[in-house]
Amino acid sequence: MNDGRSLLTDREREILAGDADVSDNYRYKVQSVARQRVRGIADDVDVLREHEPEIFDELQQIVCEDDDS
């Protein structure tokens, strides 16, 4: 993938995709962490929009991509 963590770690992706054998409680914990990160993205978006519009545009294209598959 890439050199660092995006929104989720590789392990979190595995857990949320159902490809890891973890307890329901642990899965809920990973879901909670992901939700907290999603909520925290708002501050990052504001900074990118104001100071790095090209990066903001890239992010917007990725997030708003229409997935018809």
Please provide a written account of the structure:
This protein has 69 residues and is mainly α. The protein has 3 helices and no strands. It starts with 9 loop residues before the first helix and ends in a 6-residue tail after the last helix.
Q: Describe the main β-sheet briefly.
A: none
Mean pLDDT: 91
Shape: elongated
Give the SSE order as H and E letters.
HHH
Number of strands: 0
Q: Helix segment count?
A: 3
The fraction of residues assigned to DSSP E strands is under 5%
Would you tell me the structural class of the helices and strands? mainly alpha
Features of the shown structure:
3 helices; mainly alpha; 69 residues
Explain briefly what this protein structure is.
By secondary structure, the chain is mostly helical. It has helices at residues 10-16, 24-51, 53-63.
Q: Which secondary structure elements does this structure contain, and how are they paired or packed?
A:
Layout: H1 10-16, H2 24-51, H3 53-63
Helix pairs in contact: 2-3
